[in-house]
Each structure stands twice: as C-alpha cells, then as structure tokens.
C-alpha cells in the first residue's frame, strides 16, 4: 500500500504520520520541528513549558519547581519552542497538543495560535469549548481526540450548534497509548474498546459530518500497523512512543534508556491525579508510592484542573507535574516515565528521518 498525503483544514501533510504530543518535554522543538521537516506532522506539547531550557522562562520557582500555573506552563516558553521548531521545519505545518484538563485551557489555545500553531490537538476530556478558544484564529485547524463514535457525535452536534463549526480532523485513540487514556481502568482491557474495534464506527460517524480525516492512535507501531489502520478506514495515524526512540526527541537520555530497558511486564496502567488511568514504565517511583516513601506532595504548579490543587495527587500518591518534570530532568529515582503498551519493543535510538523511512516503507526496505 502506498500512503497518500493528508489534508487537514488549509494544510497538507506530505506523509500521513502525526507525531503524538508528549509532555513534559518529550515533544518540543527538536522532535516536532524535525518530524515536520521530514514530511509528517510535528506536534509540540503545551504541558509544562515552564521547565523548558532549565526553567529560563519560569519567573518564580520554589526549589527549582515552577510556582503556580503561569510558571509551570509558560506562554513565553511555548512561543520560544515554536520559534525554534520553525527554524528546523520552516513553513511546514506544526501542531500544538493542549490537554482539555490543563489549567487555563482557553488561554493556552490562544497562546499556541499566537505562537504559530497551524493546528490544535486536544484530548484528556471531550473538548466541547475548543471552537470558542480558537474563534479568533479561523485558519487554525482543530483536531479533537475521541475514544468512541458517540463522543464524536456529541462533539459535532455541540460545535455545530454553538459555533457552526466542525472538526477539521478527528483522532480516535485506543487504550494502548502512552500517558492518559480515554477509558476507565477496567474498560482499557475490554476487547470492544481496542483500536481496531472503535475505529470503524468513528470512521462511519465522521462521514455523517462531511469529509473530516480520521486519524488512528494508540498502539500503532510499524508500517504493517499503519497499513492495517488504513484498511480499517483511517486516513492517517498518530504515534507517540516510537518517536521517543529518536535522537531528536527532547526527552532525557534517562527516559529513553528506561523505555529501552523495559520488558513487556514493566509497562503498566497507573492511577493519575488527572482522573484518567495513565500508562508508563513501572519504576522506583511506584515502589516508593507503595512503600509510603514517595516524594512529598505539595501542589505549587496547579497544572491540571481535575487534580483540584493537589487533592487528587494525594489520593494517588504523587504530583504529576513534579514527577514528569523529574523525568525530563533525567532523575531516574523519582521520575514518571510514560510509554505506550508497545514501549518494550523499543530497542534502538535512530534519527527521525530513519524512523519515517521505516514507517513509510517497512523495516526491511528503509
């Protein structure tokens, strides 16, 4: 199967491969810029930008941790990340991934549009207010993430009613992805919720609303997987974990090694302060949580609204802002290392260019 280019809104993506938005600091300027340069869609995560470049843009910190949501997330840092990514990819399309659960979601969308994002991707909740946040930027394509056809139907009805607008594309994400899931813990393991089962109904629902492209995500690993998703009706795929295994990925070397060294049995679903289960590598942090010796929780970042300023963090045993920041800083003992279910298959670090060749043409033909 030969893969076609992808049109989303006013933009054309040469290769139908979207790099998943991964925070904190996994997909920033180097990774996103290079993916776009190589013909895919690079996606910059808006989560935790205050820790970018050694906290350069965080105006107030407490023992090196950004203090308050306007420091953990920094508008100036996001603008700089886009500026640096543009130096790599030029005028090729770039997207921002902004969690619906992120504190100040509407303002972050505006900041990303001002910074030069051509597209906004949003999950971690059904983004019913996404068009309102982006209403002053009609050229910016809007791409929600859903996990069911029903969710897409609800979202399209609401967007049509409130803003006479529909998604420019939709991502349907199955429960094998890294980070936060769109299903409750037990639901992640049900056969009917796996990507190959939920994708076709979303494809059919999308047809009811025109011609929006459908992008399959969650557990997509190689060329054969992409072919399989295309055969099920997808127009493109989104992949996160596979891009962690690249030289250009902004993640720490410690994180890359953690995933490369992980076995299949080391990758688990965990409770998260965000309210959704999250997948990552079982590490020293989780052993310390169970032993009651994990780092003390003191919410100073106010990073995600559902955490309720640390209430949920105390229930699950860790602060997600602090622990993802530790992973970015390469602190193995207390870092939280997100990965998709296939992360154990990552065995080498290659360039984005080499990876894109493998994905487009197959492992043996690159």
Structure described in brief:
The chain is 36% helix and 14% strand. By secondary structure, the protein is an alpha/beta fold. The chain has 2 domains: 6-58 and 72-252 and 345-360, Aldolase class I (TIM Barrel), CATH 3.20.20; 256-329, no CATH class.
Helix and strand layout, with pairings?
Layout: E1 6-8, E2 11-13, E3 17-19, H1 29-37, E4 42-45, H2 52-55, E5 61-62, E6 65-66, H3 69-72, H4 75-89, E7 94-97, H5 105-115, E8 119-122, H6 130-133, E9 141-146, H7 149-163, E10 170-173, E11 179-180, H8 195-207, E12 214-217, H9 223-231, E13 236-239, H10 241-244, H11 253-261, E14 267-270, E15 278-281, H12 284-291, H13 311-316, H14 320-329, H15 352-361
Parallel strand pairs: 3-13, 4-7, 7-8, 8-9, 9-10, 10-12, 12-13
Antiparallel strand pairs: 1-2, 5-6, 11-15, 14-15
Provide a descriptive summary of the structure in words.
The chain contains 15 helices and 15 strands. It is of the alpha/beta class. A hairpin with a 2-residue loop joins strand 1 and strand 2. The radius of gyration is 19 Å and the shape is globular.
CATH architectural label of the largest domain: Alpha-Beta Barrel
What's the β-strand tally? Answer: 15
Tally of structural domains: 2
CATH C-level category of the largest domain: Alpha Beta
CATH superfamily of the largest domain: Aldolase class I
Structural class: alpha/beta
| Residue windows where pLDDT falls under 50 for at least 5 positions | none
What's the alpha carbon Rg, rounded to whole Å?
19 Å
Termini separation comes to 15 Å
Fraction of helical residues: 25-40%
- Determine the CATH topology of the largest domain: TIM Barrel
> In DSSP terms, counting alpha (H) and pi (I) runs of 4 or more, how many helices?
15
Biggest sheet layout:
8 strands, parallel
Q: What is the mean predicted local confidence, pLDDT?
A: 92
What is the N-to-C succession of helices and strands? Answer: EEEHEHEEHHEHEHEHEEHEHEHHEEHHHH
Task: Name the beta content range.
Answer: 5-15%
Strand order of the largest sheet: 3-13-12-10-9-8-7-4
Coarse shape = globular
